[in-house]
Specification:
The complex is a heterodimer of chains A (about 1150) and B (about 325). Chain A is mainly β and about 1150 residues long. Helices cover about 5% and strands about 55% of the residues of chain A. In chain A, a hairpin with a 6-residue loop joins β46 (about 760-770) and β47. In chain A, α3 crosses α4 (about 150-155). The model of chain A is unreliable at about 1-40, about 125-170 and about 220-235 (pLDDT under 50). Chain B is built from 2 helices and 24 strands. In chain B, the strands form 6 sheets. Chain B has a 4-stranded antiparallel beta sheet with strand order 1-24-23-22, with no helix packed on it. In chain B, strands 2-3-4-5 form a 4-stranded antiparallel beta sheet, with no helix packed on it. Chain B starts with a helix and ends in a 9-residue tail after the last strand. Classes of the chains: A mainly beta (about 1150), B mainly beta (about 325).
Amino acid sequence: MRARPERATPGLALFPAVAVAIAVSIVAGATGVVRADAAEIPDPGCGVMRVALQAGVPLYRLPHTFLRAGSDTLRLRGAVLARGTDYVLDPVQGELRLLRELPAGDTLEVRACWLFTPPPLGLQLMRYQPALGGAPDSAAVADSVRLGAARASVAARPATARDPSAAPAGAALVVSGNKTLAVDFGSSQDASLRQSLDLSVSGSLAPGIQLTGVLSDRNLPLSATGTTQGLQAFDRVLVELSAPQGSAALGDVALSIQRGEFARLDRRVQGVRGDLALGRFKGQVAAANAQGEYNRLEFLGVEGRQGPYVLTDRDGGTAIAVVAGSEVVTVDGVRMNRGDGADYAMDYERGRLTFSNRRPISSESRITVDYQFTSNRYRRNLAAVGGGWEWSRGYLFTQSVTESDDRGKPLEVTLDASDLQALALAGDSSGAALSSGVSFGTGDYDTVRVAGVLAFAYAGADAGHWNLQFTRALAGTGAYADSALVAGRTIYRYVGNGNGPFRVGRALPLPESHQVWTVGGGARLGPLAIEAEGALSRHDLNTFSSLDDRDNQGRAARAGLSLEGAPPGWLAALAGRAGLSVSARTVEARFAPFSRLEAPFAGDDWGLPLGGDLEHQRRVVASGFIRPRFGGQLGASVGRLETPGGFESLRRSVTWAREGGVTTRALWERADGTQRDRLLPAGGRDHARAELQVRLPWLEPALRVESDERRTPSDTLPNGQRFREAALELRGPRTLRWHTLAGGSLRRDASQQPGGAFEDRTDARTLRAGIDSPDDGAVGLGIAYQWRELRTVDPAARAGGATAPRARSDLGSLRVRADDRARGLRGSANIELTSEGENRRARTLVFVGGGRGNYDAAGNFVPSGDYDLRSTVSPDLERLSRAATSAHLEWVAPGPASRWSGTRANFDFESEASRRGEPLLRDPVIAPGAALTDPGLARGSVLQRFETELLPESPAVALRLRLERRVSADRSDQNYSQTLDERQASARWRGRAGGTLSSEVEGRWSRRIAAQSLVGGSGFGRTLLDQGGTAQLIYTPDARVRAVGVVEATWSRGEGQSQATRTVRLGPDVGVALGARGRVETTVRRAFISGPPALSLLPTLDPVGAPRWEAQTRVDYRMHESTTFSLSVNGQERPGLRTLVTGRAELRAFF
Amino acid sequence: MPILIVLLVMLAGAPRAHADGGAASADAGAPTARDSAAVRPDSAAADTLPMRLARIAAMVSGEGATRLVEPAGVAVDAFGRVYVADAGLNRVQRYDAAGHWLGVAGTLGSDPGQLRRPGAVAALGNFGIAVLDRENRRVVSYDLQGRLAGTLIDLEAAPLSDQLGYVDPVALASDRGGAVVIADADHDRLLTFDFSGHYVRAIGGFGGRGASFRSLSGVACGPHGEFVTSDRAHARIQRLDAGGRVLGAWALVAGPGRGALPVAVDDAGRVAVADEFTGRLWLFDPSGRLLARTGGCAAPRALAFAPDGTLLVAESRAGRVSRWTVSAPAAPGGHE
């Protein structure tokens, strides 16, 4: 027991009180200061502190520290709160933590006593600065005289800490986190330091101002003083501050500027962002490091291929990494959600996009991806500032965004004087920004004379005198072509000046600078509304060069006028509301916005060819609408478009929509475009769509028909596409909790023929069905399935009786759940079907050195060969149909708690099959034999597990039996396969589970088969049989001691071997408490091995089998309530090998 | 070797109370529901308890992409964003502090980015989320934007599988430093890993007394790195320090069966426990004193405290995550 001195000796405890009383009496009698009513004088060290409660804030800092223990009383509306239940108080820090939610806005009354002059909470060292020689500071002297000598002497002392009572009211911050320091050491490694810091700050800075900040630091090497230097040295930091007037964020933040149309920006940046709202003014400011360069891709999907779709940089390069979270993906104009279970998944490292089965992709899917790819040229900075004023009749805004490369900080190159000169002379041409790329010394090339011209020729790896770099050249300026790949390096050969795509030289990165400023506003006067916006941009593609700067600046403007209200006169009897509007927009060819101005595939509406420039344009659109009294809205518009590329178009459209029990929608639009400089200049679009939905009590049918014909200008043959589609959908009524859906569509795609007529090319049939049950019942069911077949319509083949080629893509998911608690039964099953694209792969034999591989030159597996297999990836994609299944069935003994509680049996089944081509019906529930042998499966895996546990909660005995089979096959490579078949069984008996002495015995059996085969080679195969068991005797007299004696025995042999490797391991596991704060644990194993050497299932260079001696010791000691030190040492000893010792010393502190 | 054991037992010294205020039962052998009926938490009437648990909202439930079918794990980051693992849909969903859907990750399968019946979720330091991918027997990590960071722990990969044998991971927790602990129901032990996913040690094991477990069902980390565990066969909650030493233990009236006994600990050290089988929910103070009790949860499988002090409960049968407040009864008791 801990000593409690205040109660140990009452006589001694009374002595100070008596002494103080006597002393007070003496002083009172002598001075007459203490009167009879002295008890009524309030104690200046006690009082009431009032705390204004805030919503969601559990911690408050009181204005006083060093509160007297037990003196606190908290009241809320007169009711007393309970310490330890309603709140806890840190008396030293003066921090109050509420343990339950109290009504925000109320005032909490805290009555307590505290130290009248508390010592400082922190240590602040002040450097002594002796007075300079010469005359003293006259002002200081004057103050000293005026305030008196005593005050002057106090003022002369350095302050040691701030006054705690001056803490700002309402400031309550919670700081929590962890610091870990660990040193790893070992006999075969150098000591290494691992450290981490996680810090979290949250709370209220002042009433209404909330702060949340987190910081994380991992594995940073420590400086000599043991601290990390500077905030930028930390791995990650994120701070969010919110206040009634605005908010601010620091770290990895999203920057979104959406005012107007010409300076929109949507980026994910690392920096700071602030938003301010003062009355009618709203402003935003941001400064950041841009994490990459912006790009947009628009493309059509590939029939039945969910992905991957490769994203590129602006020049079409594929080796890019996408800034995580920067992408915006749309399909047919609908924005997608990221996530494998949502619409798409993104491989940011490789810039690959794959759609999930929730979003089927076909050849008609119009996909748009806006994204940022990481820049490797210069450090790039971004700043934005903007503000707007809004009032009842209008608004005004302006904003400016600048993004520039820091040309003094190239990222992956070092620029010397000649490089800078080359950049200065390159203008805006990246092809002209080249350095020499030639250095004399050991290299791969030598000089030769070719037709009198001095050229470079490959001489062999490091066999020449010139070290060269090659780069892609502008058309007609190259002299070299890439000819071969030697030891991973591309070799170039001379093909004559102007004849090759490459030239000698090193491409230099051009630093860019980009600014956009915009101003706009709008006003509303009754039914009349007007708005306008103007913008200026400046985009310099090479800030090192003043050449080509004449086209850096561009302008854009737009204006609109609209009239909307109740129609006058006799029209009011027909329509409740009507409107007219006219808008105009002009964007110069030199104007450079930060993001696209037009919606994805907006060019289709005007008949512009795919990939045509719609960003720069002159456009006038007039439109109107009318809302009849009986409901719905009828609209019409007409517009004219001109682009700098010479495209002109006139577009007309009429729309109708009426929602209700009978919903009707219709659209007709027509565009006639002309590209002046094309031989076939005519283009355009004819689009019509009609929809009918009826909401019946028992069914909601919907019918849609659509026809869309697009024609684009061309120089060769007429270019046009057309589709016609009819779709029917039957949906269950929305009032039902079970949701059902069935539908189908028929679509025919046609292309324009040389004669101008359209001819059908493909015929797509799609069937869909789905059912979804409520989630809170005993049975849950969810099915979604789409069957789609695409047939190629070839008139010539059809005339000859040939079967049209087909492509099928099935997507689906099944979810079933059932729960019968009365019988203790529970089951669930999930199936997902999807189709994917995957790069073709193959294995090739590669020479790796004498005896360092596992294959000979003919591809035969040998224990010690000169060759090994390497995987090569082809850019070609193959289509895979994937089915994944997960099913579980469980029975648990029902009834009240008893000896049989927890008795259970469960069966788990999991499978996954990726099949080349179309899926088969059996793929969702594939058999282990099929996974091992079916050559059509690129990958297959099956897991079957049965497990039962009897009497697990019985104090006397508990049994567990497990049977498991696990099969996997990988044939992803065209010429190589690897299969694994494991069967395992184990039975465990536990005795006297609730006693001081308990025991456990487990028997195991396994059969494992592995095979590898290479087409043309002999392959590899091995079967291992293992059997054995473990026995444990567990002694736990109380919580301080746990001692276990363990014996393990294993017999292992390869199939066909007569003798088994016999291994017996035994030793103790002991854990003992060290005093009140520590614990030590020791594990020792000694292995006795006999028979032939142990085998591994697959070839490995690592030691196989148990070590002869193995030991681990670990000590944990709680140095403080929140600080723990631990030391662990592991040792392994194998015959013929060095004893391996590893360990770790770790200090962990929580705060 | 027996001499060594005896020596270590002697080194352990006499039982003594420690400074943390842990229950005295820590050194006397942890109580169970069967041998310590005096502290049965259900013996007190709910209205005599000092606090009250009240469901204020079904924070997360919805249709379509935002829908939950079988929530089996829930965690909250420092900004109040909620991460929910759905074992029925094999995915992890993100919501902001107000319950608005933010995103989703995962689909059925065993490849990177795929999940099979995900279970517990835990905040991994300040910038990560760890998800227990139960049937794939691994722990995968995501950043706060829901992007897959990788496989943090693979329990089936050698040499970890050789060292640990078969593992049945039923629960997962992480402390403030990102160290991860997994509850292994097959061997009734805690497996601890450092913030980078390297295996550190096993704590406990099969047994009847303190620092041992039977039918280990839940684990949570306290503010100072301590562990709070629940095991169904013993119907017991234990508080262990980071070294595995028992700080306190108290009994629980858990229902029969094999369902989860999820545990959560807040910054003040209060312990929330739920029983998936009976739908009960308890709140204890750090020493095991019952503060509040309620029922009616639809198979609660995971708990998490939010930064504002509310408790999130993943109710797997109802397909929702509900938010509960901890408040006092109408007339709070107190002291002068």
